[in-house]
Amino acid sequence: MNNRFVIPTLILLVIIIGMTAYPVAAFTACSGSSCNATDPSIYGMNGTACSQGSPVTDEYTTYGGLAYVELRLSGLCNTRWTRTTNIGSQAYYIKALLKGFYWDMGYKAANDVIWSDQQYSWPYPGFNWQACGTWSTQPIGDGVIGGCTN
Amino acid sequence: MFIKHINKKIILTVAMLSIAISIVFVSAPITNGVNASSHQLPASQTLKNQEGFSLELTYANRVGDFVRAEFCYKLPTNEDWQVGKFGRGITLTAGESIYTVSHGGLSLKESPVNTQGEKRCSYVDFDVPKEQKLGEVTITVDRLMTSLPEVYDCKKAQQKLEKSNKGKDIVVNCKIGDHSSGFDIVNKPMDMSNEKASELAIDEGFSSTIYGPWKFFIKIE
What we know:
The complex is a heterodimer of chains A (about 150) and B (about 220). Chain A has about 150 residues and is mainly beta. Chain A has 1 helix and 12 strands, in the order αββββββββββββ. In chain A, strands 4, 5, 6, 9 and 10 form a 5-stranded antiparallel beta sheet that branches. In chain A, a hairpin with a 4-residue loop joins strand 5 (about 65-75) and strand 6 (about 80-85). The termini of chain A are far apart. Chain B is α+β, with helices and mostly antiparallel strands. In chain B, the strands form 3 sheets. In chain B, strands 1-2-3-4-9-8 form a 6-stranded mixed beta sheet, with no helix packed on it. Strand 4 of chain A pairs antiparallel with strand 8 (about 100-105) of chain B, so a sheet runs across the interface.
């Protein structure tokens, strides 16, 4: 093989192997309403995901003893989303719904968490943000709400 | 004359100090959580766990079909601390009946921050039927812990587990997915169940925990 091809190929290989061995968290910038309908673990500000920027559990509820449902709030991005944890001892379908906005659902093992997309909080002063969630042995459809925070 | 004047001053100072000390102790008694007295039932109580961490029960009132209680504490780190774990580990005992928590959250909704040393107040709702007579009840909090991160960080969790007495032989592997994360137990002591290893991985690895118990004896009409 010609040296002209060997060296660039080797460099490319080293880069690819390096990227695979040390995956770099890929944060995407958002602010204000541009964070709407995005994943809070990926989108954020100043190189920090919204879910890592001083997040708090604003409110929580439990549903059927198997789903722990949290209304999460990012102090960094001023966004809210819902997170549901499977607090049972085996795998179930669990759902996280930010009421009026987004939801996500999946078949998750015990202690796994699932979360919805986020919504910027500012344009809704006095809005009653509600996190809803549920669990099931079957896939959970669009209309199913489950238990909600106050 | 001079001595008389001094004496008056001393007596007045001692009297004022006594009143001030009495007010402080009556309004917010600080006792050890394990040895808290069941004979005093003030509206607000502050108890300490064995390590001296203070938890205040500011009130516990009946509101329709539930009893709402509020707890306040100083954030021990710059993390999102909560009372209980997954809404569990907080109970209200009235006679033979034990009630658990169905809802909870932060008392102040404006700009909550996770700043070490800041006071945080959280409420919990116990599902207590209206017909249940209460009177003297016990509210027990078995722990405070930080909320889980969205994306589980196994490297950080493993470092914490290795430093922990209870979880040092547990090895975890993280599963990060689209809008989801979880973990598997890769290694654990032979005599430990998978459930117990998972519990310790959360308590000592993915979260931080301050163990109680704090037992509050209170009267609810």
